[in-house]
Specification:
The structure holds 2 protein chains of 2 kinds. Chain A is mainly alpha-helical. Chain A is about 85% helix and about 0% strand. The chains are: A mainly alpha, B mainly alpha.
């Protein structure tokens, strides 16, 4: 029985996804609503994203100096930080925070609309609820994730600078001059592809959980909980495959 | 502008938890129940996430070190980055996402359905009844979850290193064990302990101060997980500096 429930939920998610994507790629688009959602998402997530990637960049500099001082190869510190930040740290962490802040607020808003029968009301008025409530949120998260990823990368590199140069006395000119020595365009593009894929996962999971929330206020709480857990777990799994595909070791 | 009153409210909330915990008998049975529930609920996702973070670290480490022809240091990289940093912070953020949001939404629902007021009417201290067992439970179980996650992470990193990347397994283990000391695991447990405290207190606080209705519960849950993740990331730096610096 349990397995059948899981399968049914997976099927419902698949149907929901195709309905959303069909409306996402065909006009009319709610441009005004999309830009409002992008603004909301960026203003809600910018501070949490910066506040997590910066300390993690600082930690990386701290532990990196331990490794590289063993080999007396401190010039590799800033390349390590920039490669790790662009490829891994920023896409994953920024997306965890977007899931925690943006995704869960989508689920909470849509869940509350569902509980208060506002979604049924729009259907009664012959307005497509997916087009006006779901599609703008998904489009907004797809636009905002790369921007927030860029912000997170800056935070990570800045945090590494603060910790290595200001606190640990690593030479600042060396930090900046070596920063780009190992980072290629592929690292930047790969990071942005990751952010885009993670954004799509968060957007679809969050709107699905919110759209089909049931059972009053506790149901909304459960929807938010499931959104964060499901989307974060999914994209950490997907991340491994993306890393292998985008940056796998050349033999 | 609402920052200072908010901080003051939070301080009062903290004081209340400490006072209620020390001035009442310890709820040992219910704390163990909470520990069991948090552990059992979080373990499956933690295992999945640990496996994939470990494999990912291995791939990234190999690709970074291959540019300077030092693939044999992947074991050391996994031990340093994975054991000391990734595992504790990852466990903390997954537990914040799973158990923390659950605490926040349960308590928020109790708040808006006036069950917390009902407890007070029955002369039961709601802090002692609702928060103390959760706090003790998460403090008990989070270090254990972190150890399990560290083990899973290193094993999966090792698996990928010898199968997908074709590295020498013996060198990997030698490097990894040479870098990790027993004290590192103790420090990880300390980190987990602090993160557990932060997650539980912040989640319960947002639940207790939840606004009305379904949207209030949603907002409280949302704020709980964001605040917990951000505070853990910032504290992680301070703890790393203190313990490993």
């Amino acid at each position: 029985m349990h397995l059948f429930d899981r399968l049914a939920a997976l099927g419902r998610f698949g149907l929901f996804t195709t309905r959303v994507i069909r409306r996402l790629i065909t006009p009319p688009w709610e441009i005004e609503e999309i830009s409002r959602q992008v603004w909301l998402l960026c203003s809600r997530c910018a501070l949490p994203v910066l506040a997590t990637t910066t300390p993690l960049g600082m930690v990386m500099a701290l532990q990196g100096l331990v490794i590289f001082s063993i080999f007396e190869a401190e010039q590799y510190l800033s390349p390590l930080i920039s490669v790790a930040t662009f490829r891994e740290l920023s896409p994953v962490l920024a997306s965890v925070l977007v899931a925690a802040q943006g995704g869960s607020s989508f689920a909470a808003e849509l869940g509350a609309m569902r509980i208060h029968e506002e979604i049924d009301a729009t259907e009664v008025m012959a307005i497509d609820p997916i087009r006006i409530h779901v599609v703008p949120r998904l489009a907004a998260i797809l636009l905002a994730c790369p921007l927030l990823n860029l912000l997170g990368s800056l935070g990570g590199i800045g945090g590494g600078f603060v910790s290595a140069v200001w606190i640990k006395g690593h030479p600042g000119t060396l930090y900046w001059s070596e920063l780009w020595s190992m980072t290629g365009g592929m690292d930047l593009i790969g990071g942005q592809i990751k952010a885009l894929v993670f954004g799509a996962i968060i957007g679809l999971v969050a709107t699905y959980e919110g759209f089909f929330a049931s059972g009053g206020a506790p149901g909304v709480g459960r929807a938010v909980n499931r959104t964060v857990v499901t989307s974060a777990t999914t994209f950490i799994v997907v991340n491994y495959f993306l890393t292998s595909a985008l940056f796998g070791v050349p033999h | 502008m609402s920052l200072l009153p908010g901080l003051a409210r939070f301080g009062r909330f903290l004081g209340q938890i400490v006072w209620s915990t020390v001035s009442n008998p310890l709820p040992v049975g219910r704390a163990l129940e909470e520990a069991h529930r948090i552990g059992v609920n979080s373990l499956p996702i933690l295992l999945v996430v640990s496996v994939f973070v470990g494999t990912n670290l291995s791939v990234q480490g190999a690709s970074a070190f291959s540019t300077i022809h030092a693939e044999r240091y992947v074991g050391m990289f996994v031990a340093l980055a994975g054991v000391r940093e990734m595992a504790p912070i990852m466990v903390a953020s997954m537990v914040a996402a799973k158990a923390g949001t659950e605490m926040a939404s349960q308590i928020a629902v109790m708040r808006i359905q006036e069950q917390i007021d009902a407890l007070e009417v029955m002369a039961i201290d709601p802090y002692w009844f609702l928060i103390t067992p959760r706090l003790l439970g998460i403090l008990l179980v989070l270090p254990a979850l972190t150890m399990i996650s560290i083990f899973t992470l290193v094993v999966s990193a090792y698996g990928v290193a010898i199968t997908q990347l074709g590295l020498d397994g013996h060198t990997f283990l030698e490097q990894a064990t040479a870098t990790t000391h027993a004290m590192d695991l103790v420090y990880c447990a300390v980190k987990a302990f602090v993160f557990g405290l932060v997650i539980c207190v912040l989640s319960c606080y947002h639940g207790f101060t939840s606004g009305a209705g379904a949207s209030g519960v949603g907002r409280a849950t949302n704020a709980a997980v964001v605040m917990a993740a951000v505070s853990c990331a910032i504290l992680n730096y301070l703890l790393s500096e203190l313990l490993f610096g």
